[in-house]
Please model this.
Amino acid sequence: AQTVTQSQPEMSVQEAETVTLSCTYDTSENNYYLFWYKQPPSRQMILVIRQEAYKQQNATENRFSVNFQKAAKSFSLKISDSQLGDTAMYFCSSGNTPLVFGKGTRLSVIA
Amino acid sequence: EADIYQTPRYLVIGTGKKITLECSQTMGHDKMYWYQQDPGMELHLIHYSYGVNSTEKGDLSSESTVSRIRTEHFPLTLESARPSHTSQYLCASSESGLRGRSFFGQGTRLTVV
Model:
């Protein structure tokens, strides 16, 4: 069984600043992927970034990067140069069999 | 961008009615999921399927049922709607493999009066 924990229900950040969203997980799998998804208000959820557990190098997608600490089972998302369009719910996920999520973090970017 | 569609987008229905929420994807994904989500809240997995004729219940107990007769189609049915079923229902499908990303429909917002 997989469990995912997001301990920050809500966060806010000033436009152009950097924010980090936390996620911890537990899995019995040897190899797995971790995902961050973004759900903007009233819009479809989309993938932000994914990380393979066997890769030591942290994944990066433009302004989004992760800090993956395998031993600690931690998978945080860093958003640099925050933009108003980053305002959304962010969900962390451990794998896709089945696809389960943390409770989400509501991020507000303030102008 | 996502080729996964849910209908209807909004539904208001009376207590006791039978309803079916439709979900279709054109990406050929074997894995499909249904979630219940109150606005701005966490996602609760209620059903999933790993392929045709495969269905499983998720973590959240639900009075709904699902079927998977065709790869592209994963409808959810409530035999007798109740006000407690009022919520948003999200459908998703996943690419194969550990690396596979998931795609989400726009959701059906159900209100039972």
Summary: The interface with chain A takes residues 1-2, 31, 33, 40-43, 45, 48, 56, 58-59, 90, 92, 94, 98-102, 104-107 of chain B (CB under 8 Å).
